[in-house]
## 1
Amino acid sequence: MSRMLAIARLATIGSLLAVFATDTRAVDAYASTIQPILAQSCYSCHGEKRQKGGLRLDSPEAIAKGGKSGTVLVAGDPAKSPLYTRTILPAGDDDIMPAKGDHLSQDETAAIERWIKAGANFGPASSAAPAVVPATPTPAIAPAKADAKADPKSDATAEAKPDAKPDASKPDASKPDVKKELPPLPTTDLDQQSLGVKVPDAKLLKSLAAMGIAAHPLSANQALIELDFSQTKAALTAEMLKPLESLADNVVWLDFAGAQVSDRDLSHLEGLKRLTRLHLEKTEIGDKGLAHLAGLTQLEYLNLYGTKVTDAGLAQLASLVHLKSLYLWQTKATPAGVEKLSAADPGLQASFGEDLPEAGEPKPDKKKGGKKK
Amino acid sequence: MSDTSRNRFDHAIATRCDEVTRRSFLAQSARALLGVSLIPAFAGGLFAADGDAAPVSAVRRPTAKNIIYLYMAGGMSHIDTFDTKPGSKTQGPVTSIKTSADGVQVSEYLPLLAKQMHHVALVRSVNSTQGAHEQGNYFMHTSYTLRGTVKHPALGAWMLRFSGRTNPTIPGNVVIQGNSNYPGAGYLDPRFAPLLIGNPSDGLQHSAKPPGVTEEQFAKRLEMLKAMNQQFQSRYDQAEVHGYQSVYDEAVALMKSEDLKAFDISGESQGMRDSYGDSPFGQGCLLARRLVEHGVRFVEVELNGWDTHTDNFDRVSDQAAILDRGLGTLLPDLANRGLLEETLVVVATEFGRTPEITDNNGRNHYPKCFSCLLAGGGVKGGQAHGKTDDQGAMVADSPVSVQDFNATIGYAAGLPLNEVVLSPAGRPFTLADKGRPVLGLFS
């Protein structure tokens, strides 16, 4: 790359940072960032002089029009916008753009992605435009990989090795930019909710993992997590439960299925304002324990099958107006107990279990089990 | 073995043997040295080592935590099962019955499943480009066509690669009654390969210490193995070599784990076992449910025997009865436990069968259109997506390619469909090739 070009790119990146550091402010991202990238890297083939593939990218109208193979820009959806997707293919791919010359840098492709995601405005973004979602992946947080070193690159390198022929003389291609992320699918509620939430402390998650409690990220920025106590083998201790308090902002799914959890232990859940799914099935939990759940108003899924709960306990859950699924198979709870809850929460579906098919009709056929043609 | 000859031996292994030979060598070593043969037939590693269990990029909230993938090997006749054509001459003697889903009918061969269709989203417009068993099977499992130069990973391996496993002492990827060509981990790390289980009623074979070997002796054997491997490992410092060490370590961890009982379906009541049906497939479905309860993320159960070139109607009715009982019990059983919401149940096959009935009263291979289904795991039940024409011969509405179907599964599991992973030769691949998920299937 010539020095001039390098400087030009630096300037582009500089302006980029300026744009995205301020995210929702009304700035003209197209003029300040996107157009310069297109001018520098795309116009030579998709501009005034040449229109490869019938495509011009040198005016908003031309971009909107697309080329012979269709539209190149779907506002709000980088995944469907070849203007973005074609730039992030791995080096050497037949379809990568620009087809000639240097590929776009990661900052440049990220800028295009963000611009499209924010609505692909060609003028100054209106204040109503959606906030730009930060797409920077943070280090993985599941316990086994809690240390920040576990970045995609090292993983990719490990990935590429196993099947490599030992005599391959070529240096393997699995160096830094092996893995480029293509556009994510539409972001979910959880991704939106996770904005501004602090990613959990990796050390804390690691210490939980050491006690058999796994954490799995559920949002793009990994701030929201599932905590899984179901694989713990002994009675839960304060040491295991206490961290729930400092993770109150993060835990949205929580699994105690089959764990040795007591009614009193559930007091540690009271601060979990974001909790939407809670597994308590096959535990010793009873009505006393349910009292601690009354404040978990975001709860949508509550699994109580195989517990000691009764209708009296359910009565304490009237505040859970978002509850959709309530599992009560193998409990003493009855439809009458649920009826009171449904009054305040018409979307509630309670399951008491159904009988499985009886043996016999229709007859199973053993002979055919492993039959080949 | 003298030092020199040992060196030469190591060298030969590292440089000349092909993949399979190296793998089987290692598997044999484990058997011989440890007295266990827990290592899967493919010897591809039981599950991810600790360092790799974490997702690199959880892209979005999954609608399904687990997948139970039921594979109908041989090519399931769509017209005689999930896409009946009452009144058409291609239908043959099979009649249709109403189901618990409004406006969705299935074959009379599926009476139990008919009662569960409110959980099920049928996909009647799947189409493949592969009309032979091996190729079709491979394509369905990997989203790529079979080729000589590279082996692609199947879904279970992708799932472990991206999501890790939930239970550290149990494999995350299990295949029951799978065939020997199962694509497994493909070019991904062997640690993501499935644990293969033959007969579900036998549980996990050879997972106990050999009789007469004391704890102390066993530890000694392990130590000896480590010492013998050390030199080799330090010389050939490669991910795969370390991968096998982690296979041994994890095999030993599993042998000592109480999670082993997840593999033992004798822990279920006789009534429960009877409900699933007295077939390897039915018992495999039951085992799949048990494994999912214990934190296994991906379980595949295979039902072979759908290649009905002759005697189609008798044979499909037999096959369908096995499927009906297994899946017709699995769905309500998962639902009772609150697991169906979080577990995507898939029924897939390599292709359908010809609308025309042959002189042998059979149907031949037919990849142009066929039926698969999804249930639970965030999928909206009670619907049929896509349509075929009156004869069941062409897709008439909303075609779903094999890649689209797999992308839909990946989407449900929250896997990054667009993340490019390079094969060892530097070719870029993704989980479902260029497939796009069918978002209309989700609630």
## 2
Amino acid sequence: MSKEENENMASKSLESSNSFVTLRDVSKNYYNFKALDSVSFEIKEGEIFGYIGPNGAGKTTTMKILVGLISDFQGEVFIGGYQVPKQKEEIHKLLGYLPQNVAFQEWRTINHALKTFGKLSGLSNTEVESRIPEILDMLSLSDVRNKKISQLSGGMTQKVGLAQALLHDPELLVLDEPLGGLDPLSRHQLKDIVLDLKRKGTTIMFSSHILSDVQDVADRVSILSKGRIKQVGTLNELKSRLSPQDVIEVELAAVFEKWQNLKSIKNVKDVELPKPSKILITLDEGANTDQVTNEILQYLEKTGGRIRSIKPVLLSLDEIYLRYVEEDKNR
Amino acid sequence: MKLPLLFVDELQGFYKSKVMVFLWIGLPIITLLFRFISLGTTGQAIPFTIVSTIVVSSLAGTLASVMIGISIINEKNRHVYELFLIRPLKRRDILLAKFLSVYVCIAIASLISISVGMLTDYFTTGALSGTILSNAAQSLATSLSMVAVSCSAGLLIGVASPSVLVGAILVLYGGNQTSIIPLVPTLLNTPDIVPFTIGLAAAVCVALLAAAVALFERKQF
């Protein structure tokens, strides 16, 4: 996608209403290195927004700009109507953030850290006292409440990081690689928590390079590569936008003996039978998929083929992601 | 205003640290040892109150600047501040809380050490002369002024230094040299030294703290 198309797509998406987070033409340079290049997207209120890209793509830089840790950038960023970094103090009241490498002062116990961060986020003593057990219970940390954080494993520390982000019930939760270092059970638990928070109306942005995790929870996804947004959309939108339209998959209710005859249809290049009840039909380049699909349907009806489904083959999120990342690598 | 909360929080962290344990217990022990050695070598009894203030001023200042400088560099490099900076608080409060907590801890350690000196003098000589007490108070004021300058120098170096090694070198050389500034009125034989010493230390402290805060405000995390 050209830069112009990227910008058009971004500005079009920014026109839509109920956006809680808006980034407009955000760029960030580290000396001669362009970490972000005209990044634009929006996050709607109450949605889970997956931000994916390879290491060094600029995910953490975007998130740090969003939460106000980096204020030296070009472009505009708004959260809940407030401008970053000008109205940082207002924004910080709405925000929960889990950094990629979460760290605490070594002398702190979990309880002490949560008390401090809760109070700094504006909770009263009573609120802190009632919220801490709830959060610790949610994250299965109750047993280690009085343990020093420095004595915890990486995964447990990550959970404490999440606890501090959730403590004040923020409207926007920004999670930078939240599943890194977690065991499978904890990953599952965290995904459930994220989905539960979405049900309660929390807007969530989370980054990852583990695509299955994003696929499981995100409403919309943005692919970032070398500091540029390659795609933004729902998973289905991305799949249909990027998938090759030249392969059609036909699933049959019964074995169809004459499957090879499908080759005689105009614009059909090849026909394969990977399973007895599944036919893969490759079309000529530039063929009208809808028209050929119609002709295939008519042929199968005439010749007694019992169709269960017919659809274009879609790429998985992994394949979409790899396609863009590889494209950038080859530049 | 989150400064009181951050101050109490930092205080809780520092008073339990190994460096503070050394200061609470180690500093009085060192002064006792110093006293023992000085008796053996000179054969002349120096008032222990004076000995303890000399030890406090020489050790506490260095420890203060190293402690605060290294603590800031470590926390900065480990990204500890990120969780503070995304909350509705002023960046300067983080630094001021650290400065105040270290200063209070060291001031208490200095008082304990000097009190040990005074008690030892009282029990060995049976009384404390007015001159000794006045000299001790003057020395204490000077050492606490030096500690304040050391702390603020350590704070600035901590914010500015990229690594612990660079920070340690700068603190040991730069921090120590800067902490001598409050001694200028003493070296110039200024009459009524204490107000001048405290005033000069306060001015240097404010300048160093302002520089540290300005640098921290502009820092990208």
